[in-house]
Amino acid sequence: MWHAGPVLTDPALLAKAYFRRFGQEHFHRFAKVHLGLGAAHLGSAEAVDRWIALVIASYAQLRLARYLVDDLRRPWHPRPAPGAILSPYRVRLGFRRLRAKLPALTQPPKLIRPGRGRTQGSKNKPKATRPAYRTKPPNSTKHKA
């Protein structure tokens, strides 16, 4: 480990900070790769904020469901120790089987006749195209004075 800053009198504090950083890096990689944090190309900053909130909520669901799911490991994964808490990745593997265990919280949909549909003679209205949200213009370094 290397530290650039004031001299620390307690090296255990530096080790604690390093291990926290290690955990954060693994969370960001899991969120990007398995939960799709970087997959959405959205049109506004508000939409990006909502997407990040959804990804964090899905991660919270995985953390809460770790005691409810069965360990569906891949053949190359080692068996966990008895009583060990499952990682979010292992919970994600068994999450879809959890739905069959949960009670139905809603009633079946009501059978009604279908709506009128589109009025005769109306045409499709295409959605206006908007560029993907960017923090700075694509050619911001090539300004001519």
Morphology: flat
The SSE string, one letter per element, is: HHH
Structural class by SSE content: mainly alpha
Number of helical regions: 3
Summarize the main sheet.
none
Question: What does this 3D model show about the protein?
Answer:
This is Transposase. This protein has 145 residues and is mainly α. It has a domain of 84 residues. Helix content is 39%, strand content 0%. The mean pLDDT is 81.
Secondary-structure blueprint of this entry?
Elements lengths: L10 H23 L11 H20 L23 H14 L44
Protein name: Transposase
InterPro entries: RNaseH-like_sf
Please describe the structure with a list of short key phrases separated by commas or semicolons.
145 residues
Task: Write a brief caption for the model.
It is built from 3 helices and no strands. The chain is mainly α and 145 residues long. The chain has a domain at 11-74 and 82-101.
